[in-house]
Amino acid sequence: MDIEPWLLIVMALVAVLTGFLDSVAGGGGLVMMPALLFAGLPPQLALGTNKSQSIAATTMAFVNYARAGLVDWRKEKWLGLLALAGAATGSLLVQQISTRALELIVPLLLMGVALYVLLSPRMDDTQAHQLLSRKGYAPVAGAIGFYDGFFGPGTGSFFAATQVGLRGEGLTRATAHAKLFNMMTNIASVIVFAAGGKIVWALGLSCAVGAMTGSWIGSRFAVKHGARLIRPLLVAVSLALTARLIWGWFAG
At residue 95, what are phi and psi to the nearest 5 degrees? Predict the structure, then answer.
């Protein structure tokens, strides 16, 4: 698929915004997917190309959070691998099954995330009593990974909110671990979409440059400002994704 040079530049600039959002609260696909469709990409190519730029954003964010000492890679890597396996399974399955049911359920889940973040006194940077151990959280990580490969919107929000609510992590550390897990799910999805020839590489690489730039800015802001920045963005992104999915359901 031939892409005009000016479109590569415009989409790279759009990716700066999506990278910022993904690094702090997730939901960059809320902006990138409509932009890719508007640029003329068929839905499957848009999905694959979006993953190719999203992996750049989540990787850059993960590196910045790790440098700040917010990621325990050695202890969390197994959860990341479970999320990767779940995403690979979801990416394969989505090519066989309709996503209509998820389109009905996900708005309710995202609304729940937004309400929890908005109303819970625990959505800050203090540690709390964990309801699930690391092993206990493993099925949750795998399920969210599967969801990301199968459908995707709000994955970062789900990872962050469940780690605060179930593992008792502070919001900034939960967001850092969410980037690790989301990076792993994106790796799996990119491999599957690339194998199926569903990525426009020129556009994906151009967007990746913009996404890495936005992610570098966003993750540094998040490390510096913590929950004061992450909490309102997480609420805003969750509500925006909810509205977008509900609109798409009624419009469709």
Answer: -75, -10
